[in-house]
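Changelog entry

Holo records now carry the ligand SMILES as an explicit input line rather than a separate metadata file. Below, a converted record for magnesium ion, shown in the new format.
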Amino acid sequence: MDIINRDALAIAELIRKREISAVAVTTAFLERIRDVETTVNAYINVACDEAVRRAERIDGMLAEGRDPGPFAGVPIAVKDLLSTRGFTTTCGSRMLENFVPVYDATVVERVDGAGMVMLGKANMDEFAMGSSTENSYFGPTRNPWDPDTVPGGSSGGSAAAVSAGEAPWALGSDTGGSIRQPASLCGIVGMKPTYGLVSRYGLVAFASSLDQVGPMARTVPDCAALLGVIAGNDPMDSTSIPVEKVDYTGSLDGEVRGLKVGVVKEISSRGIDEGVLERFQAAVSNLEGLGMEVEEITLPSFEYALSAYYVIAPAEASSNLARFDGVRYGFRASAEGEDIWEMYDRTRSMGFGNEVKRRIMLGTYALSAGYYDAYYAQAQKVRTLIVRDFERAYRTCDVLVSPTSPSVAFRLGEKVDDPLTMYLSDMCTIPVNLAGIPAISLPCGLSDGMPVGFQVMGPALGEATVLNVAYALEGAIGFDERPPLSTSK
Amino acid sequence: MEFETIIGLEIHVELSTDSKMFCSCSAGFGGDPNTKTCPVCLGHPGSLPVPNRRAVGDTILLALALDCDITPSSIFHRKNYFYPDMPKNFQISQYDIPLSTGGSLDVDMGEYKRTVGITRVHLEEDTGKSIHVGESGRIHGAEYSLEDFNRAGIPLAEVVTEPDLRTPDEARAFMQLLRSTVLYLGISDCKMEEGSLRCDANISVAVDGSMGTKVEIKNMNSFRAMYRALTYEEERQRLAIQEGKTVVQETRHWDDVAGTTSPLRSKEEAFDYRYFPEPDLVPLEPDGEWVKALRDLLPELPYARVRRFASEYGLSREIAETLTSCRALADYFEEAAGAGQDPVAVARWIAGDLAALMNDAEVPIGRCPVGTGHLAELVELINSGAISGKMAKDVLKEAFESGKAPRRIVEEKGLSQIADESELEKLVDEVIEENLEAAGDLRDGKDQALKFLMGQVMKKTRGKANPGTASDIIRKKLAL
Amino acid sequence: MAISMEDVEHVARLARLALSCEEKETMRRQLSDVLEHAHRISDLDTEGVPPTSRVVPLVNVFREDVVRPSITPGEAIGNAGWAEEGAFRVPRIV
Ligand SMILES: [Mg+2]
Ligand SMILES: [Zn+2]
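Structure line, unchanged by the conversion:
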């Protein structure tokens, strides 16, 4: 059985029917990891022994007729930004190279409660700051479609793992596009839920008002199922919305006739590569073919979203990352005779990589006396305008669409020394985070052999509609290509 | 030159909630280092704060007691600065939209009343504690420090006053009144020595009506220290001005042993806290019902009670203030006075001998072995002349130790005064017989001889003679 | 929006980062680029527009005042390289 190429829902079904054991599934994925990791480097730490032991327990429970949860034995990759009790959580940073959390993130508890088996912690840009996964202390992840290109980021490890068959699905986090952009570049499905739908407890904060955990998978139904597991109110997160549980899988019927689609003019034309634009437009035609009404919509404040984001996100990050100081946990640079201030300075300089330092500096500057009003305060007002633009659009549209990323995967090292160009690769995804709304990226074909992503955005808590549109489109496009990844065997 | 001292205070009150402000760790005092910690109060990556409802309610209660307006929608801010006692290297506090603003508290200074404006009452989290290791035991000269985060995250209500205080005396009186107000509300134990009540001061000296330079004083760990520090600083600034020196705007540290303030020069202080709204928390919008329910909980507060004790019971301000400094003590007085005895005498016995006994035995008023009925009984025994004031002291002591009723103590010990005149007359005759010289002196107008003769009567009666009756009889016998 | 070397040094001190001379120069250049882009937000008229610092429409989220077990002393200091008698050891502060 070619288990590593089956989707998560199929694997769950096979295990539940006991046509395959959880141990066999886990072992197959661990083997695949062994085969392709030298090329892909999707994981920072693989939980080989822990995963097998857990699969054995699940098989034991199934044998005894007990219920180990709806997704018993289905493996999952977890972005290394999510706290896992007793298992190293590095955030892709030297700062936390040996950090072992004392608690589980709420989403980790939830996937555990559903019976899933964590295969390991996925690679990422350090503290989720980046769009290429090149900013990892543990080396870059490579795109399974072309190992000379990046998988996107910051959840590049999660995206590459799913794309390369190293996990059927994964958890990522998205602050400015960190789930959707790598999903796009790796040819998989990735969703950023409404801010507050999924608990952030245990998600190591980058920009608290923008961060959201979300599912990454090969299909829309898998994505919907994983969202169903992790969504829901958490008393440990004050910003978690108390909403009724929604059956996202159950509401996938592909019935989208008559829904209104707005094509966002500002992020669907200028600055988008031609190949991407072609695939995007073909997909928009598919939506029309499904009976949806398509119109162009203009959101005037969007061109300022990137600028506002690169003030707000670093500002929050500069404060969130202040706790990494060498006192209570993590890396400490220590030298005889120095005082605590020297210890702080050297610990943080050696523990953080360049991109993290850059953003801390940027955010500190934007909040500092004399610059607060021009940068931080103004950015927050611009954020209001962006929220209003979306609200206006959703008065006439059910969903909005755009390309996910302006280009397909770029080459490793191509943008690493040019932060501003790198930042521009998030131009289509960032407005969504500023507004706190849900959006999904799904593959809509290839351009020069590399995947192109299509973004569907919905109003706050409109996950069911977004997923359903994506599901219908997925069926219409029929994208079933897999990366031509050669194994080291 | 006309000097005027301008003082404003910033008071931190540690709320006595069961759990901390943003996590479920115990907010109790002390314990082995870091035994009351969790991912939240240690600032572990990924942890998030969730506010304690009671801490918010307690702070609103304090704000109402200080006559503040409750802000309809207030928010938390992050105050960013590095310091090893701060787990996240930012403090969750409130900034430009605090929980409450615009209150006041009247301080009775005897000859005048000082109305002190309350700028704001807000809520924030406490820091951990640094233990400095080295010969000095203090931060200066320490080899290294040890960080204990048991205190980190305990809720703090911060009260900021307007610069309305004019003397160290007023500042101390304000603090005492604020402390008793907080104690009345039952929201903190206000122990300065344990740090659950802390006070920083801003002090400047205006010359001929023009504002001086503000200096912040820290580390005043008792009312006495506060008074001494402000007195010292007031004098230091006046002298500087007189000598034509400039007063530097700075933070100064009070050294209680040396009795001086000195600049707290931390080379690392950058004074740019980069406040911004805490994105992990949502606004506080206390609805009318909650605020009303809290307002209904407000007891009669010390300032009002002092005034009532003076008008209703005729107590002096000093004794009224002593009795009202603690809500239970004031309640005790009112109950004892309710038994119909002279309230001034009742007040004196409570504030005097009873308070001393409780102090020595370290017994709080709540567990006082002398019930209010017994105290009233004691006063009645004195007023009826059954025992003397001097005997009453012993009776009270006995009652305090045994819990017995004063009347029973008097009976058991046969302590009642010999008020019977015929019996006393017989005794006085004996005394005069035995002390003719003294009797002669008294006749000659040497008044101190009366004291001697009285002493002899008391000796014979083992103190049981009513002193008034006895001296009357002596005078009568000597035909004075 | 070119920023000065003094700005870079001031911000590095606030952020507690020790930067080499070379790093400072690179930082100055890169931050200037990004800030120039970021400064475009000042083109927008935001007169009368309230700031958005959070996007969830929630207020008054509380927990009840209930004590729950803390972590163990071993867990508290387990990730600290420098601990002594259950406390975190840090170099001298002044
Ligand atoms: Mg404060
Ligand atoms: Zn705690």
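Spot-checked after migration. The mean pLDDT of chain A is 96. Chain A touches chain C through 68 residues (CB under 8 Å).
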